[in-house]
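Friendly challenge for the regulars: who can give me the structure tokens for this chain first? No prize, just bragging rights.
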Amino acid sequence: MKPLSSPLLFIAIICNLTACHSLAGPRPNVVANMPSIAGARCGSAAETQQARQTKSALLLSGGGGSEAELKDYSSEMSALFGNIRIPAALFAGASAGAAFAMPLGTSDGFALGFVKRIYALLMMCALSCQLLAIIVATLSMGTIAVSAESRKASCLSDYIEEYFDLSWVTARWNFLAGIFSFVVGQGMRAWLTVGCPIFGKAALGVMVSSTIFAVGFIEDNERKRRSGGVSKGLLGLTIKYFTSMLKKATKDPLFALGSLLSAVTWGYVAYNLPHVW
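First reply, four minutes later:
Bragging rights claimed.
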């Protein structure tokens, strides 16, 4: 067979290269497609970050609604009751010791005798309120410790309102009422027992200013709480306490009896107050 000449051989090589290029097709431009690939990856990362932020916001606000987001807040609830029980016990002991520190005398005038009676009543109110706060907090902590029921909520506020609303409101209101009664009574005692009228009035002023600061802090703290549909602050706490106790009294005879005795006692004091001397 006669070999091909040089021109024919060159033409055959060119034809073979053209055929291979057409069969392989156009090569993708990898460098040109890199921005689009990177943009897709950045977009997916941004969507993932947005989903994480949305989930975190739902968890903080108590939303979401899924069972996995519920949590048992029994340890936090027990710690809150413990924060009330310990100082309430201290104030109860101080109130019991100071209740009879100013006995009535035959030589007491009208003003002095009236102040002494108010002082004794305030100390007994402080003792009663602190004892109730101690009992409610202690029993609630025991219920949390021995309860076999699984109690879960999306946040601590929902946990309180769902399982310990009446106990928590009762402990807080009586603790604060006992402190105010104790502070006002001690201010009256300092005003009367200090021999110097200047320092006696100064002691009373110190107690009054401290009480006003305490009320301011309590008001600010109560406004930050979820109020359950009533007005916020100390007034809202008081309204919620008495309305909750009245609702409980309609269902439990012991609560009804206690509410009736309390109303009769204060009505008796108010009726006979003009005759006290």
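The two ends are 148 Å apart (CA to CA). Residues 20-24, 34-38, 55-62, 227-231 have pLDDT under 50 and may be disordered. Your move, everyone else.
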